[in-house]
Amino acid sequence: MRGYLKTVTFAALSCSLALAAGCSSGSDGDAQSGSGNQAPSGGSQQAAAGGVKAGGFPIVDRPITLKAFSRKDPQHGEYKDMLLWKDYEQKSGIHIEWDTPNLDSATERINLLFSTQDLPDFILKNSLTSSQIMQYGSQGLIIPLEKYIDQYAPHFKSLLDKRPDIKQQITAPDGHIYFLPSVMDYLPSNVGRYPLINTKWLSKVGMQAPTTSDELLKVLTAFKTQDPSGNGENEEIPYSAHNINLAFQGIEGMFGLSEQIANFHTVIEDGKANVWLDDDRYKKALEFFKQLYDQKLVDQEIFTQTDKMYFGKLADGIIGYTPLYQPRNAGKYANDYDAIVPPKGPDGDQVWAYLSNGVGVGNFMITKNDKYPEATVRWADYFFSDEGATAVYEVKEGEVYTVAADGTYHINEDLLNSDSGFENVMGAKYTYYPGGGALGLFTEKQMLPTMEGTPMPTYIKKVQDYLPKTVYNAPLLEADKQDKLTDLSNDIGKYADEMRAKFILGKVSFDDWDSYVKQLDKMGIHDMENILSDAVAQK
Amino acid sequence: MKWREYTKNYELYLMMALPLAYYAIFKYWPMYGVQIAFKNFNMAQGIWGSPWAGLKYFDKFFSYYNFGAILGNTIWISLYAIAVGFFFPIVLALLLDEIRNLHFKKLIQNVTYVPHFLSGVVVVGMLINFTSIRGGLFNKIIELFGGHPVNFMIESQYFKTMYVFSDLWQNMGWSAIIYLAALTGISPELNEAAVVDGASRFKRILHVKIPGLLPTIMILLILRVGHLFNIGFERILLMQNDANLSASDVIQTYIYRTGILQGDFSYSTAVSVFNSLANFIILIAANYLARKTSDSSLW
User: Fold this and answer.
1) Which Pfam families does the annotation name (chain A) (predicted)?
2) Helix (H, G, I), strand (E, B) or coil at A69
């Protein structure tokens, strides 16, 4: 699925990248004048011209227009039609012109916009990775924000004062802050997936929720062989997930592995980063996964599955055990699923590996093209206030939610139980948070109402003792280190993905494990570990 | 004197100006950007201002651990596609040419070239559905004959065949059109003379029609070989997954990953330059060979 739209937009470019690069030549002149590492020095005067006020709303004396880039997730309608932005435009006096390519082509589009210097004024919704932020930041294409934060971002500043760890995480090695994060201060929302099992099937096969990997194997086998759906067909898929990555992540914890640095298959041990792709525990996990695959207990389409196919299977009620965030996604079978305590592995490891650290990367950046950085920062700071955060998740009192006597928020039932899905309705007309990465500081107050009517808030009790201790984002590094790490992790990641498939499918035997490890060594997995260890030590 | 000739025929020059402008703007001007293959491209400094890097990026590509594999895949898929995709349209055209019933002929022609208008995304979507291990058409047929279902999309040994034959299915009818046109260009007298001499249908195809088609075939073959390193990139990308990567990763998908997704423009341009150079050399070689061995060549 990832790729459908990508391909359409890319078709025109496929013949020659030189063409794409060539487009930028026209703007060389002003590119050079804009280079250098600081924001335009006349910043405050320019903003005075824009009429930014130090506090209160509207933000500006007379209306201004800013160009913004964000991505359109599958749940989203047009940004300009979202009630959140319409309301906020009235309040702030800032009109936004949106450029919002689909999720699939967003990376492509933002890279091309940067390479052709056709920049928006600001960028939302983690559209840039750590390495891109460092690259564009060091080239002066996105501007440092720290000098605006003191004066124009009171809410964000007080957050940084309260949570110095956040400041540490978002500060680049050159001392600059290039982006504002999304901060999720509510643990249940930071666990990306929960171990959900089909309880109806469990009682049908007369078994308890599995507590160990052996029991898990038995339960999944029973799901496969005893026709728990009771329709006489062998259509049951004992274990499935969105794709191979998420499916494997649901298994690796039983072998003591987790993702303590986002995207790097890394655990932190004795303060050192261990990229476990060459670890014996990984080998054991792979062998276990292969066993599941060979016995057809894992979805046989796991290597080619798209999100759509996965959700289709959920809606058909043919999946037994799966890592999933929202049981609502299972449609009419939603109530069949319940979270279990993550099973214990053969060596006693019991980790649930889906945890993000709650501080997003690259959720809001200002480019050098922005004539009103002060006003833009103030625009963003609103979402770090209680009122702004609520506007993102609950949008508007009366229309979307009501406030109960005890001060809690309650989203209208017809939205929560909408046939087309709650997040789809919210994304279509109201707000841009579905899909994740919304800017702001969000707490239980905002998050709990979105879970109303689901058992989600109770799930956390099942997994909270088994989450990794700390989880780091991909580090922000100096440009040359960042380049090195990107190269290493791209090559190693691709090779490891390919080999994982080969081991699981039996195309490569585990007898060849040593040569696989040797190849990783040759490709520099230890250099990668050193870079990551240094980054962790500095945190 | 000379000038008069230009002004006299100004309409012709005016008409030529458009294609010239097209080539200048879309083909030659972008070559200015090729220099970033030799530079540490920095977006803020632009193409001209970025510092030189020498052959660093070419080095990086040649020492890429999978260089041999992606080069091999590119060449093999391409040769396979040429062998199959070139042969069948010629056969189809010859067969169509033999059909007497005009309505039937038109019907077949339409049926075979309609798939050409489908987008690659749709074709791959169909392919994925047909080859699905959960009730896909192909597996239903295999099971009907008592075989075991095969998960085609993750078996790397089937990748090239699936790619080449889905391409054939889509483009066979379209590619046959040019041969049909060439066949109508063969003088009917030759054919009649052969009939008078008592040549069978098959002999007529062998000794009249195929020789008549040969110049067209040669030119198209040379042009096709000149694109040896460029293959149907989007369909390959869509069909790619971790499990078949060893058979499906080609130079162009690699360029896409490094250039567009990772934003490493200098590196991907270097790979692209290598790709174009290789194509260029092969085109010249193919043309040289064609000139030596037959009468038809591009120049």
Assistant:
1) SBP_bac_8
2) strand
For residue A287, give how far its alpha carbon lies from the nearest alpha carbon of chain B (Å). 16
Higher pLDDT, A317 or A41: A317
Per-residue model confidence (pLDDT) at position B1? 55
CATH C-level class of A49-185+359-430: alpha beta
Q: Where in chain A is the domain with CATH 3.40.190.10?
A: 49-185+359-430, 194-350+477-538
The pTM (predicted TM-score) of the whole model is 0.84
Out of A17, A498, A522, name the one closest to residue B268 (CB). A17
- On the question of pLDDT at A237 being above 80, the answer is yes
CA separation for the pair B135, B37 (Å, rounded): 48
ipTM at complex level: 0.84
d(CA A304, CA B131): 11
Cα separations in angstroms, A60 against A94, A124, A386, A440, A462: 7, 21, 21, 21, 48
Span A42-66, average pLDDT: 71
CB contacts of B121 in chain A (<8 Å) are 4, 7-8
Interface contact flag, A491 B64, Cβ < 8 Å: yes
CATH class of the structural domain A194-350+477-538 = alpha beta
CA distance B189 to chain A (A): 44
How distant is the Cα of A210 from the closest Cα of chain B, in angstroms? 27
- For B218-260, write each residue's pLDDT tens digit: 888 888 888 888 887 889 999 999 889 889 999 999 999 888 8
Instruction: Kindly list the domain boundaries of chain B, sorted by start residue.
Output: 67-118+158-293
Give the integer Cα–Cα distance in Å for A522 and A491. 11
Percent of chain A with pLDDT over 70: 90
